[in-house]
Design goal:
This protein has 164 residues and is of the alpha/beta class. It contains six helices and six strands, in the order βαβαβααβααββ.
C-alpha cells in the first residue's frame, strides 16, 4: 500500500476543497510517481480524496507510473479520520495488490502510524517520524486482506519526499 500526502498546494482558493497544486507541487507529484515507477511500486487501485489538490497529485503519479487502474474519488476521506480511510480501504477489491491512498494530513500520517506493526524498515519509520510533508509517500506491506485492515496490520517499508 502507498500512502501519499498531496503535493504542495496554493494557500487559498474559493474553498479549501478547490485548492490547486503549485508549480512546485506538480513537480513534486511527478517526482513521487517517477520514484514509485523506478522502484517497481505501481498501484493497481487507488482511493483518492475528492479535493482538487489530491486529484492533481494522483494524476501526476498515475502519469509517471503508467498505471490506468481503477480509482475511487471519495468525498468522505477529504475530512475523514484514519478510521474513515480504513473503512474506504476495506471496500477495495480483494484482488488489488498495490493500493494507493492519496489524502491529507494529519490523516495520512496517523493512518501510517495506526497501521504500522513496528517491525518495518528503521530508516523509513525514522523518516515518517520526522513528519509527513506535502508530496511525501509511505510504502507499507499489508499483511491482511483489505476488508480486515486495522491496527498493526501492516509495516512501513519505505518513505520518500518528492522534490520539486
Amino acid at each position: 500500500m502507498i500512502v501519499i500526502r498531496h503535493a504542495k498546494a496554493e494557500p487559498f482558493a474559493s474553498t479549501d476543497h478547490d485548492r490547486r497544486l503549485t508549480e512546485r507541487g506538480r513537480a513534486s507529484a511527478h517526482d513521487v510517481g517517477a520514484h514509485l515507477r523506478d522502484h517497481g511500486v505501481v498501484p493497481d487501485f487507488a482511493v483518492v480524496s475528492s479535493a482538487t489538490r489530491t486529484r492533481e497529485t494522483w494524476a501526476a503519479v498515475a502519469e509517471e507510473t503508467g498505471t490506468n487502474c481503477d480509482v475511487s474519488f471519495d468525498d468522505t476521506v477529504f475530512t475523514g479520520s484514519p478510521d474513515v480511510v480504513i473503512d474506504a480501504l476495506s471496500h477495495v477489491p480483494a484482488e488489488a495488490e498495490t493500493v494507493a491512498f492519496v489524502g491529507h494530513n494529519p490523516t495520512a500520517a496517523y493512518l501510517c502510524h495506526h497501521l504500522d506493526d513496528g517491525e518495518g524498515d528503521p530508516a523509513a519509520v525514522s523518516g515518517l517520524l520526522q513528519g509527513f510533508p506535502p508530496g511525501a509517500i509511505a510504502v507499507l506491506d499489508v499483511a491482511t486482506p483489505w476488508d480486515e485492515l486495522g491496527a498493526e496490520s501492516a509495516r512501513v517499508v519505505g518513505f520518500y519526499v518528492g522534490v520539486g
